[in-house]
Amino acid sequence: MPSHALPTSEQIDHWQVMRQHAFKSVPEAGRTITYLGKKFHVYPNTFWPFLDSQPLVRNFRIQRGESVLDVGTGSGVIAIFACYQQASRVLALDLNPAAIRSAHHNAQAHGFVGVMEVRHSDLFDSVGDERFDVITANLPFRDKPAPDVVARSQWDTDFRTNRRFFEEVAQYLKPGGRIYFAHSNFGAVDEVRRLAKQAGFSIRMIAKSAAKRAGKRQFFVFLIKPAAKHGRTD
């Protein structure tokens, strides 16, 4: 494989199927994962804290007192790191009941029950009319049919979740607000850029993980903002 080549679809499929099996095989009592020096507990069928969100967590900036909406929270890691940055309110959403259970546990374990609220929600369905200074999202990267809720953490059937995110996100963002959006080199990168620009946003990559070997998986984070009327989008 050339040094610049991406992993093949077959390689990514195999890796992701194995990870889904691992998520499902967690003991009922759960297991503890160490992520960026902190402990997170995950129950069966929850997406684990992993490298995919690290460029976002290492590079997003929350000002003291800002409000944060975390979409697709999984075990709650992005929401909890927003709490550590002294957000005044963090609302964490997920469709997966196992993820909700894990995120509730981790909010309590890290001492953020008074700041962080966890809700079961299909994207923005449970948000109401609240708006936020910052929205974070680690949605499934690949346009691929997902047979169950665990697969939906990695695969997005017909890219419906991502399309709906960009169609609706502006109504939950305060004026001057911003979005931090995780993605990968094996995902639908061009489609994400297109959807963001079509929805009236500027989008630029602000950080990425360093691939350990040529041609391997790489993760990054986009900073997305409402585009100026005559501004440039990256």
UniProtKB/TrEMBL annotation:
<feature type="domain" description="Methyltransferase small">
    <location>
        <begin position="53"/>
        <end position="187"/>
    </location>
</feature>
<dbReference type="GO" id="GO:0008757">
    <property type="term" value="F:S-adenosylmethionine-dependent methyltransferase activity"/>
</dbReference>
<dbReference type="InterPro" id="IPR007848">
    <property type="entry name" value="Small_mtfrase_dom"/>
</dbReference>
<keyword id="KW-0489">Methyltransferase</keyword>
<keyword id="KW-0949">S-adenosyl-L-methionine</keyword>
<dbReference type="GO" id="GO:0008276">
    <property type="term" value="F:protein methyltransferase activity"/>
</dbReference>
<dbReference type="InterPro" id="IPR029063">
    <property type="entry name" value="SAM-dependent_MTases_sf"/>
</dbReference>
<dbReference type="GO" id="GO:0032259">
    <property type="term" value="P:methylation"/>
</dbReference>
<protein>
    <submittedName>
        <fullName>Methyltransferase</fullName>
    </submittedName>
</protein>
<dbReference type="Pfam" id="PF05175">
    <property type="entry name" value="MTS"/>
</dbReference>
<dbReference type="GO" id="GO:0035657">
    <property type="term" value="C:eRF1 methyltransferase complex"/>
</dbReference>
<dbReference type="InterPro" id="IPR052190">
    <property type="entry name" value="Euk-Arch_PrmC-MTase"/>
</dbReference>
<keyword id="KW-0808">Transferase</keyword>
